[in-house]
Amino acid sequence: MAAQKMSLSKAINASLRTALENDPKVLIMGEDVGKLGGVFRVTDGLQKDFGEDRVIDTPLAESGIVGTAIGLALRGYRPVVEIQFDGFVFPAYDQIVTQLAKMHARSLGKVKMPVVIRIPYGGGIGAVEHHSESPEALFAHVAGLKVVSPSNASDAYWMLQQAIGSDDPVIYFEPKRRYHDKSEVDTAAIPDPLHIARVARAGTDLTLAAYGPMVKVALDAAGAAAEEGKSLEVVDLRSMSPIDFDTLQRSVEKTGRLVVVHEAPVFLGTGAEIAARITERCFYQLEAPVLRVGGFHAPYPPSRLEDEYLPGLDRVLDAVDRALAY
């Protein structure tokens, strides 16, 4: 298939379809992923085309879904599990961190765990409680798990292909408020490695680092800053575990300043680790402290208040101004 423009959700669907076609050991499991096609219709049409034995509607039991996926992986399958919403993952947290993440080390490398857990995450869709969380730092902290998040349709397609092909478990966070954003997808391209960050916009005055849903906000901020004569470099991290600190370091050595942006609360978030590491690596190149922009250290609010909670253009530009003032 030649390059074509598609939405992020359609790119995920196309990637799942490709994986099902290429490997009979790939299975898709989750609540309403089959007949309904998922609550966001991301798996639409897959059960119809591949059957109920490969696209499996499960009971409403996240721990059971992940536990079953672990058993299937032990038998040579490559299950792709969908957690319907971010806040629903916690009943399965025990299975993920005490079993899935540990099997490879516990078996001294003999047992592979090729399990992908897809999690639509983040806010911005006017949802009710438990439907707008950003729990990526909880999983990035757990050794044995890979944690990634695409920001555009091309990455959504290719990063899912790479996650399914991995022999290690991958937590694949999908920015649900970007599901309808469209971009070019070339399914014949050679993709970037799964855990390599990408410079989404070159600049010289300050580095903005973001991932998933916040990359668009960072790019918008860079565009707004350019109108005032400020040159911001935007780095799409793509991966939260491992983090590509080398690409970040090269950018910060050039710009001298770094602002990290994510939806999750700033307190003990992914940005905290990035700030610490870049301060260690770039101490003599930094012209200002590394600043972080994110959610507040509070439960996610009712939808009518989420615009106040989520970091937007103004909060990012305020951090940029503070960093450039040093």
Report on this structure.
With 326 residues, the chain is α/β, with parallel strands linked by helices. The chain is 35% helix and 20% strand. The protein is built from 12 helices and 14 strands. The strands form 3 sheets. It has a 7-stranded mixed beta sheet, sandwiched between helices. A 5-stranded mixed beta sheet has the order 9-11-10-13-14, sandwiched between helices. A two-stranded antiparallel ribbon has the order 1-8. Helix 1 (8-22) packs parallel to helix 7, helix 3 (62-74) packs parallel to helix 4 (93-100) and helix 8 crosses helix 12. The radius of gyration is 19 Å and the shape is globular. It starts with a strand and ends with a helix. 50% of the residues are buried.
- SSE string: EHEHEHEHHEHEHEEEEHEEHEHEHH
Strand content: 15-25%
| Alpha-carbon distance between the two ends | 50 Å
Total beta-strand segments: 14
Strand order of the largest sheet: 3-2-4-5-7-6-12
Specify the structural class. Answer: alpha/beta
**Could you list the spans in which at least 5 consecutive residues all have pLDDT below 50?**
none
Helices and strands in order:
Layout: E1 4-7, H1 8-22, E2 26-30, H2 46-50, E3 55-57, H3 62-74, E4 78-82, H4 93-100, H5 103-106, E5 116-121, H6 136-140, E6 146-148, H7 153-165, E7 170-175, E8 182-185, E9 198-201, E10 206-210, H8 214-226, E11 232-236, E12 239-241, H9 245-255, E13 258-265, H10 270-281, E14 291-295, H11 306-309, H12 313-324
Parallel strand pairs: 2-3, 2-4, 4-5, 5-7, 6-7, 10-11, 10-13, 13-14
Antiparallel strand pairs: 1-8, 6-12, 9-11
